[in-house]
Amino acid sequence: MLEIITENHLITEAAVVVLIAAGIVTIARRRGGNAVHWGAVAGVGYILLRGLIIALGLFKGTAYEEGPVNFGRLAVQAIWLAGVALSARFILGRGQAAGEPWFCPGCNTLNTSDASHCEACGRGHTEPTDSPAGRG
Questions:
Q1: Phi, psi (5° rounding) for residue 103?
Q2: Mean pLDDT score of the chain, rounded to an integer?
Q3: Residue ranges in the chain modelled with pLDDT below 70
Q4: Domains in the chain: how many in total?
Q5: Same domain, 101 and 112
Q6: Which member of 7, 72, 74, 128 has the lowest number of beta carbons within 10 Å of its beta carbon?
Q7: What is the CATH number of the domain that holds 101?
């Protein structure tokens, strides 16, 4: 199994990064962020870190570098992706009410507890409705 991973390490690494970036995009979209922005921050940051670490020659000749897979580089890049994911989860929409699944007042769609905007119509969790009862 390890031979397969090391032989095709770039393909495996790219597939894992795409899956993680898709998760970050989902978190950002549910929290009201721009999905393209957060996906680009995750993906481009990962690629730039890879290039920077290789250009500076970090982790060369250490115990963290075994064959074609540089585990030190992968650890730094994993920390980057974790930081982006945690930022998307805890910084986006932090001022908005959440806690349990909620129905959108505009379209009556049931949204998950971590969604700050409606998945169907995009209305915010705390945005007022245009109902006649709310006017005075």
A1: -95, 135
A2: 79
A3: 1-8, 61-69, 96-99, 126-136
A4: 2
A5: yes
A6: 128
A7: 2.30.30
Helix or strand (DSSP H, E) at 110: strand 110-111
Same domain, 117 and 82: no
Q: How far apart are CA 6 and CA 4, in angstroms?
A: 6
Q: Concatenated DSSP letters for 21-76?
A: HHHHHHHHHHTT--HHHHHHHHHHHHHHHHHHHHHHTTTTTSTTEETTEEHHHHHH
DSSP letter at 124 equals: B
103 lies in the same domain as 86: no
Residue listed under structure tokens 């994911």:
85
CA neighbor of 46 nearest in space, from 74, 72, 24, 25:
74
Residues 40 and 18 in one domain: yes
